[in-house]
Amino acid sequence: MSRENDRISTKVACIDIERLPATLISTRGAHCKVFQTGGYLRRKRAPVKSFVVKTHKLRCEKREAEIYFRDYRKLRKLLEEMIPKAVFVRTLINGEHNLVVIAYQHVPWFNIANPANEAEALPLLGKSRKAYCQLELFVSVAKELRRKESKVIDLYGLDNLVLDRDRQIRYLDSFEVFFYEDMLHLMDGAGRELEEKISISLQRLDYLDYLVQQNSRSC
């Protein structure tokens, strides 16, 4: 007998969910549920790489989906391998127009953006030149995006920026990867929530910059 969490729990028009074993691994994100899948597709019995399926929780209009994809593509261009390859699909979820993201899976191993982990983070970066250089690039790109475009990379989400099992930096978010600081001037009550998210993201960015400075070296 199949358990409920062995299948994607919502009807997705572009995915044969009856033939795709999946495990729900996260509902903590503000925008999506995340399912992990991989192994074999029953129909063709062809091995596939493990990947994640992210289903948007609320109705997602076409323009909103376009913005999500545009921002993801921009960040991937700047950060390259730190951003997992992903496909954005506009489809029906439970009969309503919505968005699904299918991305290569990178298993989080260590939350590098959590200041509570400083004691472990410093020696880890000291031992891995690649992770250090990736983090240095991330911090540099994040600062430049804020300075030039008023875009703040979302570090508010849990486990957005991690070391994976290969000790490489990965940014795992796909939906709304940027907060727009200039929106604070256009919003009233809702602006307080956005302000908090931006504030925490910037605090964590400062912390990441501190980690880079403490391990300063040439890349």
Describe the structure concisely for a colleague:
With 219 residues, this protein is an alpha+beta fold.
Polypeptide structure, described:
- This protein is of the alpha+beta class and 219 residues long.
- It has 2 domains: 101 residues, Phosphorylase Kinase, domain 1 (2-Layer Sandwich); 107 residues, no CATH class.
- The protein is 33% helix and 26% strand.
- It contains 4 helices and 10 strands.
Biggest β-sheet strands, sense, barrel: 5 strands, antiparallel
Q: What count of structural domains? A: 2
Mean pLDDT: 84
Cα shape: globular
Write the layout of secondary structure elements.
Blueprint: E1 22-26, E2 32-40, E3 47-56, H1 62-79, E4 86-93, E5 96-104, E6 108-111, H2 118-127, H3 129-149, E7 151-153, E8 161-164, E9 169-171, E10 178-180, H4 191-214
Antiparallel strand pairs: 1-2, 2-3, 3-5, 4-5, 6-8, 7-10, 8-9
Main features:
alpha+beta; 219 residues; 33% helix; Phosphorylase Kinase, domain 1; 5-stranded antiparallel sheet
